[in-house]
Structure prediction request, 376 residues.
Amino acid sequence: MVHPLKVMQLLPAMESGGVEQGTLEVADELARRGHQSLVISAGGRMTERLRDGGSEHLAWPIGEKSLATLACIPRLRGLILQRRPHILHARSRLPAWIALLAWKSLPASRRPHFITTVHGLYSVKAYSSIMTRGEQVIAVSRTARDYILDHYPHCPPERIHVIHRGVDENRYYPGYRPDENWLAEWRRRFPQTQGKKLLVLPGRLTRLKGHLAFLEMIEQCLGQRRDIHALIVGGVDRKRREYARGLHEFTAQRKLADHVTFTGVRDDLREILAISDIAYSLSSHPESFGRTALESLSLGTPLIGHDHGGVGELLKALQPEGAVEAGDAARLLSLTLDFLHRPPVPEPNSQFTRRAMLDATLALYQRVSGGSAAST
Prediction:
């Protein structure tokens, strides 16, 4: 028998990003299945979508690094006593500390089940250890699970549940193509891309994302093929404006400006990935998962990515020939030329889907709270 659930999810904000997207998807699914969903965050542009899906949102500064945030501890304690949720699910470090302190202040009989999700490969320190102190710990990939086991021996393996992030299989599938209105607007806005092989690197303009290695590869590739055009899709991190300026200066100095387009922030990355010939994931440090890498592969767009972390995990499962060691510039160029000549076809994505992620998450909620799982 499946019993109705009350679930509180906590995170800093509902602005944008993979953590926020996962929170929204779980909240929507809870509401769709008739459970009660409540999200606590500072709010943001995804809040309206959250409410439209049937969840309640409370705007608290629970992720703000300030002494005033400590006032959220007794406030959360009172809310838990009032609402009596079955699950308290923390998805970020500061909200998780607030949640743990409120949770521990309650009598054992009044405590909800405390779950944390390790979304990233955080710096290894006491502050980060909070994400491994849930009664149950969700790891978003095997890479994230290995990170926990390697660095936080207090967390027993049986407490860790690998639930891969996933994409909506109804939106990301081989053969998807943007409609004519979108294509017409793209051609109007970016005429320089017409008739070119499009090579796309998604990601905010931060040093870790590998933009310079990408641009250097484009320069070399142009020596052998003039029919390519590079797209860098992502906004400028407000703390990294100097880095972004340096990338633009590099393209000008190397006479790449006619062959590289910085699109800025876009809400249509799915469409851009679908019309691209090759997508890239070149982060210099391992990432826990790699959502845009999975989106590319799920659309059938070939991916070239560094063979580490979650991206390496995805490539091994769906397109092994796209893996390249970080820093191997010669291999990055040769793979690009090979893919342009003979593009590989990624395996269909039946493993890393939103449906699988939602079913597994709600099954865990039901299991720890004493019910049985159900999916539709």
